[in-house]
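Q: Hi! New to this. If I give you a protein sequence and the SMILES for zinc ion, can you show me the bound structure?
A: Yes, paste them in.
Q: Okay, here:
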Amino acid sequence: MQFSKIIGHTALKARLIGNIREGRVPHAQFFMGPRGSGVLPLALAYGQYLLCEAPGPGDSCGTCASCQMVAKLAHPDLHLVFPIFLLDKMKTCEPFLPDWRAAVLEQPYLDDDIWREKINGVNKQLRMGVDIAAEVMRRLSLKSHRGGWKVMLIWLPEMMDPAMANKLLKVLEEPEPRTSFLLAGHANDRMLPTILSRTQLVKVASPDPGEVAEALHLRYPDLTTDEARAIAGRSEGDMLEAFAMAEDGEEELFIFFRDWLRGCYSNKVAENIASSDYFAKMGREKQKGLMTYALHLIRQCMLQWQDSPQLVQAYGEELDFTRKFSTLLDPSNLEGIRQALETAHGHLERNANPKVLFMDLSYRLGDLLRQKERVV
Ligand SMILES: [Zn+2]
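A: Thanks. Here is the predicted structure of the protein with zinc ion bound:
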């Protein structure tokens, strides 16, 4: 992964490259940012730059033997560490490496849920335990294969067990020369403060809607400008969410949401049951995506209602809908609707029964929407 392949983060990329070129390579860095912001691609691009045989002023060369190996995630001095679920005789990353490699090459903005699905561990707990710590030590004891840097990339370090975290801490306390630890994750509040204090924080911000739209166009050239802008606005800087929405077909989600809310408002039981059957079959990620989308559209309605149409991130039919729908909202029901959707999102994360949850939510939203006596 070259820096130039990552959309956005212009200032951060320049700063990272500048530091390397001036010889300032911290022993350990923590690339931290929200889901879909690009912590993993940035850490990989950083690792590739360190290992590149002919790095330029703005990027790794992309063509030398090292770059080619990093591009396939198969460089002998690029050590990859990530959470796994424990299986008999499979307690280290090594047996999972081919799957992880394939998952990252397919989607460098990978998150833990997609990773879990790839290794058929949907309801299993991902973790990094002492066996992985031993694996890290073993790899650190190896000499650099190609005589340059050794890069130890740890994806989602917040999932380390305390036992592994303590072992890692010892390593970080005694830095080895020409070894770079790159941690890439989303949460620092679940990590040992002593590890954080030995790690330089690299804050990764979410890309802005223009950058998300640009990335969407590169990956899905068939999207129209309006579609890409609508998805980008709705993704709230989460590149992974944006890609998922582009793949699922943005129309489908919008139409489902619109018809569902109409059913809620008019309290049509048969329609609500049909919607909940459809919802139950969506799969957990898409169900959560629908709640996030609903929250986004409610926010857009609120902007209409607050007379801030210049801030509205909706296009085409979606925009027509938010204009009409915003007339059903007022301060008496808005907060209740927002809370109901957020609670539903939280319950889905904790594996609530989707059908029961959806029916309950439909009645609740219907009640709240009818509080204001106007017609869509
Ligand atoms: Zn190179």
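A: The chain has 17 helices and five strands. Let me know if you'd like me to explain how to read the tokens.
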